[in-house]
Design brief:
Elements: E1 23-32, E2 38-48, E3 56-58, E4 64-66, E5 69-71, E6 74-75, H1 81-89, H2 108-118, E7 122-125, H3 143-154, E8 160-164, H4 180-193, E9 200-204, H5 208-213, E10 225-229, H6 232-235, H7 240-253, E11 260-265, H8 285-297, E12 303-306, H9 317-337
Parallel strand pairs: 6-12, 7-8, 9-10, 10-11, 11-12
Antiparallel strand pairs: 1-2, 3-4, 4-5
Helix pairs in contact: 3-4, 8-9
Length: 338
């Protein structure tokens, strides 16, 4: 590949790895002057973990495929099995994420039982996977071994879509809740075991510059798929325009090297007296659907509806109808818009 007359400070070149076998591949980039004299050179090594195409794969446009077919995951967050049933039956989501219901702690066998009860490809198990009652399992000394146990046991399970091991690790001021190196250690270990399922990481979505400064973004690519959450109308901290800017900024900070997902505020919060929801805030049904499509337009490769229904969030019939409408539309249009 050769490019002359660069008009901008960045050049993007897509590489198709699907036909390559397992192994390490080195890419060398050279900058030449007008006389073809070498001005600068840099090399990068890419590890391919299996021959051909993974069960869940990422293409040159950062879109996701499952068994060779494009997908746009639309998931809830942390619904238990009984609350998931209407999501599945009414088409409010097409896959599951991110936590194993409201369980405070669980093992891989309990997570297996959970995703089998859900019955859809799932993102999980999230931060309480170590069966010890703590919320920050990635800070436990046996985190790598425990996560590896999940991967070894469930790497061929049809209801695994992606692994994720922590939520919002970049919280915590100058000292993040979970150090990036802890995430990297688990990512590397699980990659060596499960070559078919990517690993996802959801970040705190209010300060991308700070998140980058703490080491969670390029050049430290800690996951295969990234996500962030920010709720402009529930929390009132962003306008829709500034929220859209965050969609772009997070992708730019990873230089387009990873897919991104985001969370969409799907109801009124807080709400202790539904349907009145005194003091609650959130999008109208039309605003919620607009946010979902803005996410698609600005390059997101999946969304998750926030938040968990019950004591946290009230999602009425009108919001649910727009959730189902979006799932139906993205399912029919994914081959065009991705």
């Amino acid at each position: 590949y050769r490019k002359t007359g660069l008009a901008a400070g960045r050049e993007t070149h897509n590489i198709d790895l699907s036909a390559l076998n397992t192994g390490n591949y080195t890419i060398t980039i050279k900058m030449l002057d007008a006389t073809n004299a070498l001005k600068a050179q840099v090399s990068e090594t890419i590890r391919k973990y299996r021959d051909g195409v993974s069960t869940v794969s990422i293409d040159a446009n950062n879109s996701l495929s499952l068994n060779g077919s494009l997908i746009f995951p639309v998931t809830p967050f942390q619904q238990n099995v009984s609350d998931w049933v209407p999501y599945s039956a009414n088409g409010w989501a097409n896959m599951y994420g991110w936590s194993s219901g409201y369980n405070t702690t669980y093992s891989y066998s309990q997570y297996q039982s959970f995703i089998e009860a859900i019955g859809r490809p799932s993102i999980g198990p999230d931060g309480r996977f170590c069966n010890s009652g703590v919320t920050g399992c990635l800070k436990e000394p046996n985190a790598v071994a425990t996560a590896s146990g999940y991967a070894s046991a469930l790497k061929n399970h049809p209801k695994v879509l992606m692994w994720t091991w922590v939520d919002e690790p970049d919280l915590g001021g100058n000292s993040p809740n979970v150090p990036p190196q802890n995430i990297q250690a688990v990512t590397d270990a699980v990659h060596a075991i499960d070559v078919n399922h990517p690993q996802a990481l959801n970040l705190y979505g209010w300060a991308p510059g700070s998140t980058r400064g703490k080491g969670f973004l390029y050049p430290n690519l800690l996951a295969d798929v990234y996500s962030f959450d920010n709720y402009p109308l529930i929390h009132g901290t962003e306008t829709i325009a500034s929220w859209v800017s965050l969609l772009d900024q997070f992708q730019q900070y990873n230089y387009g090297l990873t897919p991104w997902m985001t969370f969409i505020e799907a109801g009124i919060q807080p709400c202790s007296n539904p349907p009145t929801c005194t003091g609650g805030r959130g999008p109208t049904p039309a605003q919620m659907r607009m946010e979902a499509w803005l996410a698609v337009i600005h390059g997101m490769k999946g969304i998750s509806w926030w938040g968990p229904e019950g004591s946290w969030t009230y999602i009425d019939a009108a919001h649910h109808a727009q959730m189902a409408r979006f799932v139906d539309q993205i399912g029919r249009l994914k081959n065009v818009v991705l």
